[in-house]
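Review form for a predicted model. The reviewer records the input and the model, then writes brief findings.
Reviewer: anonymous (R2)
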Amino acid sequence: MQAVMAKPPHILERAFELAQSGAFENITAIRLQLAREGFAAVSSQMSGLALTRQLRAMCHAARGGLQAKETSGHE
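Model under review:
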C-alpha cells in the first residue's frame, strides 16, 4: 500500500496559518518564514492591501494585542 502524500498548502493558506499561530508579530516576519519554507515570489504574492491588513489583524489578535501594547508603551 502506498502512502498518500498530502499536497503542500498554498502560500496564502500557509500565511494565514502563520498569522494565526501567534508566533509572528508582522507581515515581514511571515514573509521571511514563507521564504525559509521554500515558497517562491513571496513578496509579489502577498502584496495586496486587503490581504496585508487581514494578516496584520490576525497577527495582532493571535498575539493578544501584544504588538499594540508594546508600541504604545501602555499595559
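Findings: The CA atoms of residues 6 and 31 lie 23 Å apart.
Further findings: The helical segments are 11-21, 27-36, 42-45, 49-62, 66-72.
Recommendation: see findings above.
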